[in-house]
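Figure S7 source data.
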Amino acid sequence: MATGDVGESQITVVPRPPIPHHRLHRSPNTAPQFQPSSYQATVEENRSAGTLVTQVTAQDPDEGEAGRLHYTMAALFDSRSDALFTVDPVTGAISTAAPLDRESKSTHVFRVTDPGPRSATATVRIAVEDDNDNAPQFSERRYIAQVPEDVGPNAAVLQVMATDRDKGSNALVHYSIVSGNTRGHFYIDAQTGILDVVTPLDYEVTKEFTLRIRAQDGGRPPLSNISGLVTIQVLDVNDNAPIFVSTPFQATVLENVPVGYSVIHVQAIDADSGDNGRLVYTLLETGTGFPFTINNSTGWVVVASELDREVVDFYSFRVEAQDQGTPPMASTASVSVTILDVNDNSPEFTQREYSARLNEDAAVGALLVPAAQSLPGGGGLCPGHSPPPRRPLQHPDGHRRGAGADPQCQPLGTAASGGAGRVAILLVGGAAGAAVP
Ligand SMILES: [Ca+2]
Ligand SMILES: [Ca+2]
Ligand SMILES: [Ca+2]
Ligand SMILES: [Ca+2]
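Tokens for the predicted calcium ion complex:
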């Protein structure tokens, strides 16, 4: 402190104490400071270890050992970050310690410290930039849709979806059909993944489609995935009517076949499946007593009651085949059955006894007994054996009556048991005479 006399004659001059020299070497009590105190940096994922990210700098006014900085770094929120970045303790350069994966962790935050006697800190926020390193992934291994064959045009069948773990355009997925769309039935919306039917389906042609779908991202270069499978099962609709195999159906049957005899197989086919193609056969417009019936499931027409050609020798009727769809479809066919004659009528004498008178000198060949009347069934006895022309009679019910009234002169194949006739001949003498019944 400087002193001086005040009010005295003697002046004493006291030398001023030397002013302390400003310290050239400050004590290590001055805190260093980061400039700036927070850092933002970006680094692309997948870069090799050692990629420089940023550099931090702290200023310490101290010199020498006291001013020497030593950077350290520690993750602020997630210790996983510690293994991925390092800071150079001397230069403050921060670089990667391992390749990064943005999809695992996209932001890393650190506190950088100079831990000297009076430490300084800064925060470093590192954002990981996306690299297109993920291909789109489908949400399902296989998509399955069931579509009725009569689905309308541009009907949506299903929607596929693939996600991409990347970001931005690297994660923007576009869809396309790779294979299986042989007839061009399907269209997929590239953006939405909605699959439409664009041309008519036909269960009778193709029952199932398997499409392979590609999902491709918008990266440069893009990544794609073609593992998407779509199975479209076409469902049958009753869109085919039964069709008779050969029409009209014609058959002949002997009049003496037994009840239950199979006359003709009336068969129709139906291109549909299940009940839509299961046919039920019925006879149409046949009244009671009709001598035929049909097996509803097989289409066999069988004899239901005894036939008699001499009553009806021809039948014409219709058969319907109807499927069991909803609603059902049906078709009809005409069937004609001709009844063939069997020699099932024996000749019969009109009288039990005949008597005649015959001149004893009657010439050989003189007529003695009148011919027996011809009988129904064509079993009559006639000279010669040529059958007369058929003379069909169409009955109002569509069935032709038998030709029983016609003289049918056919030899008996087997002896029919007919009645016996007795003939008494009285010989008269002399004059020629004719036989008298
Ligand atoms: Ca991607
Ligand atoms: Ca990525
Ligand atoms: Ca069908
Ligand atoms: Ca059908």
